[in-house]
Design goal:
two-stranded antiparallel sheet, Fumarase C, Chain B, domain 1, Ribonucleotide Reductase Protein R1, domain 1, Fumarase C, Chain A, domain 2, mainly alpha, two-stranded parallel ribbon, 3 domains, 19 helices, elongated
Length: 457
């Protein structure tokens, strides 16, 4: 098959080279963006008188026909034509002849592919931002329904202090809110037009890049033609934001896996989002949550792949950069699928409120409340901490809990302890007392939820 760049060559391309260098098997995903960019480019060429207006109109009409053919599944992509760009251009020339050959005036595949990838990531980023909002809404709804449910808070995977389940859920909502902000900020660098940079040096033809930017909805035009065709910062940044998002989903998934075990028994996962064992009939495996953890590593790998790809490249475009797309595509698919799975699964999770509360009140979880009680009795915190530690040791040695001790026993450790000690040792009172901004008391969590809903609207 004749190559669009074949004028300088006398021999045919080796079949193994065609197989090794082709990208159309995966970059055909960009067809819609390639056509959108080509239509805008053709309109600009016609407006500027760089090509005849009638040819520009023919090009636009034919590209729209090709768009419909691809959409209907009637278009055949060929690896002999290397990539999505050449496949569409070859089809265009076949449709309208020499007029189609004018389309590539004042552009290169170098700025063309940068354009396509930016258009693609702009659309996908907006969709991910929308999914993150839905996920945050789900968590807010769950938090509102679980406003009175108490659970154990952990540090070092050891029971620490009682918290509200709604407070715990909103911690994840805050994470996903920051993820949403990161993608929105990333969009500022994505939404910059590279087209018109050509291969690396720009063009001598009187193009109007601002006009193309307006047609395609870009907020800015790239400033340096060399940087424009060799820049993949926007893709690296997208993958970085995706990796951080997946880190957050993985942390949530880890807790879902732990909480669904018999040992924890905090939750029951919905049947629709679990699987069974091929040999053990009793099993209900948290496969979806486990795969969220597993797929996080996949996204990390994509980020490292692109960083490694770019780290040694001189300016401007190098064919190595063809390898940028598969990590990006795979990450987009993984992130969207993960978010959709969580959005559907989380509302169906059933919480064992009694088990959560019982566990929250065990393992000396109100010891910090005892120390703060002593602080209010004008005892320095370090002294109060030591006294409380000795009381806990006494309880362990005597197989008792804090609430099991009598006043006389408490007074052995501090004469300032009075009958009012017992109310502060109750789990409910422990939670109720956390009235600092951002704390876990019911009133503060309600305030946090209201603020979050307003911010997330």
């Amino acid at each position: 098959m004749k190559k669009p760049w074949g004028g300088r060559f006398t021999g045919n391309t080796s079949k193994i080279v065609e197989q090794y260098t082709e990208s159309v098997s995966f970059d055909q995903r960009l067809w819609k963006y390639d056509i959108e960019g080509s239509i805008a480019h053709a309109k600009m060429l016609g407006k500027q008188g760089i090509i005849p207006k009638k040819d520009a109109d023919k090009i636009v009409a034919a590209l729209k026909d090709i768009y419909r053919e691809i959409e209907a599944g009637k278009f055949r992509f060929s690896i002999e034509l290397e990539d999505v760009h050449m496949n569409i251009e070859a089809a265009l020339i076949k449709k309208i002849g020499d007029a189609g050959g004018r389309l590539h005036t004042a552009r290169s595949r170098n700025d063309q592919v940068a354009l396509d990838l930016r258009l693609y990531l702009r659309e996908e980023s907006r969709e991910i931002i929308g999914l993150l909002k839905k996920l945050a809404d789900v968590l807010c709804s769950m938090a509102g329904k679980k406003s009175g449910t108490i659970m154990p808070g952990y540090t070092h995977m050891q029971r620490a202090q009682p918290v509200l389940l709604s407070h715990h859920l909103l911690a994840y909502a805050q994470m996903f809110s920051r993820d949403r902000e990161r993608f929105a900020d990333c969009l500022k660098r994505i939404n910059v037009l590279p087209l018109g940079s050509c291969a690396l040096a720009g063009t001598s033809l009187p193009i109007d890049r601002q006009y193309v930017a307006k047609l395609l909805g870009f907020d800015a035009v790239s400033e340096n033609s060399l940087d424009s065709v060799s820049d993949r910062d926007f893709a690296v940044e997208f993958l970085s934001a995706s990796a951080m998002l997946m880190m957050h989903t993985s942390r949530m998934a880890e807790e879902l896996v732990l909480w669904s075990t018999e040992e924890f028994s905090f939750i029951e996962l919905p049947d629709a989002f679990t699987t069974g064992s091929s040999i053990m009939p009793q099993k209900k495996n948290p496969d979806v949550a486990e795969l969220v953890r597993g797929k996080t590593g996949r996204v990390y790998g994509s980020l490292m792949s692109l960083l490694t790809l770019m780290k040694g490249l001189p300016l401007a475009y190098n064919r190595d950069m063809q390898e940028d797309k598969e990590p990006v595509f795979d990450t987009v698919d993984t992130v969207k699928l993960t978010l959709n799975a969580l959005i559907q699964m989380l509302p169906e999770v059933r919480f064992n409120a009694a088990r959560l509360k019982d566990t929250a009140g065990a393992a000396f979880s109100t010891a910090t409340d005892l120390a703060e009680y002593l602080v209010r009795k004008d005892i320095p915190f370090r002294t109060a901490h030591e006294i409380t530690g000795k009381i806990v040791r006494y309880c362990i040695d005597n197989k008792k809990d804090l609430k099991d001790l009598g006043l006389a026993e408490y007074k052995k450790f501090s004469a300032k302890i009075e009958n009012d000690i017992f109310s502060c040792l109750k789990t409910e009172q422990s939670v109720r007392s956390k009235i600092s901004f951002g704390g876990t008391s019911v009133s503060k969590v309600k305030e946090q939820l209201a603020r979050f809903k307003k911010k997330n609207s």
